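Q: Please design a sequence for this.
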């Protein structure tokens, strides 16, 4: 009888430990932050070729400057603090540079193809969160000229401020973002992270018991462009 009570007591203790320590174990040993969103890399960069003026189109690019866009957000998942990064290469766009200034530009992202490392999360994102069946794309459009004359031509980067309109889930709002720009060979590469409060765009961050998503995050982009 004593032995049986010891066994029962041990099982109860294990259950209690699992319930109490489970989130700590998940957070410290299982859950991991995603890799940061892509940003301009100068690895293998070359001096700029040709005039920056002209019509530019977004192209797939090559690593480490492959075109990508998505989001970064913090969440509590099963008791663990996690930074989530979603990304897609399904990005299109164009830009016009005249007299060294970006006078027009637009980037369009296929929201339904944004993926993280968790299929369950992605299903919530494309369905309940972003309703991609009704709002399949997100866009960022330049609203005011951006002076690019300060961008180096020696294969290093420069930073410029861009004012534009971000449209998510059918809601358009004015934004300003610092954009890192690289001219390398015949390529023009730019990246940035636009701070957003999700409810400003009619997006309700999930709070489902096992996961709670922060009310704000960033919309991230890295675009490689070539002359049209």
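A: Design:
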């Amino acid at each position: 009888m004593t032995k049986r009570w010891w066994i029962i007591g041990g099982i109860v203790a294990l259950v209690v430990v699992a319930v109490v320590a489970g989130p700590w174990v998940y957070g410290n040993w299982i859950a991991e932050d995603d890799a940061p969103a892509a940003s301009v890399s100068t690895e293998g960069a070359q001096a700029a070729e040709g005039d920056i003026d002209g019509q530019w189109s977004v192209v797939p690019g090559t690593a480490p400057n492959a075109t990508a866009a998505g989001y970064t957000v913090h969440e509590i998942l099963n008791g663990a603090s996690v930074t989530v990064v979603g990304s897609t290469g399904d990005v299109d766009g164009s830009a016009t540079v005249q007299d060294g200034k970006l006078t027009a530009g637009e980037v369009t992202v296929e929201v339904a193809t944004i993926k993280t490392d968790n299929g369950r999360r992605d299903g919530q994102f494309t369905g309940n969160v972003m309703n991609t069946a009704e709002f399949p794309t997100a866009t960022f459009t330049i609203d005011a000229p951006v002076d690019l004359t300060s961008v180096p031509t020696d294969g290093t980067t420069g930073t410029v401020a861009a004012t534009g309109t971000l449209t998510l889930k059918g809601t358009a709002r004015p934004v300003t973002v610092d954009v890192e720009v690289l001219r390398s060979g015949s390529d023009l590469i730019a990246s940035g992270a636009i701070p957003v409060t999700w409810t400003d765009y009619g997006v309700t961050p999930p709070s489902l018991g096992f996961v709670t998503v922060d009310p704000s995050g960033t919309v991230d982009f890295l675009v490689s462009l070539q002359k049209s």
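Q: Thanks. Anything notable?
A: The chain has a mean pLDDT of 89. The chain is about 20% helix and 45% strand.
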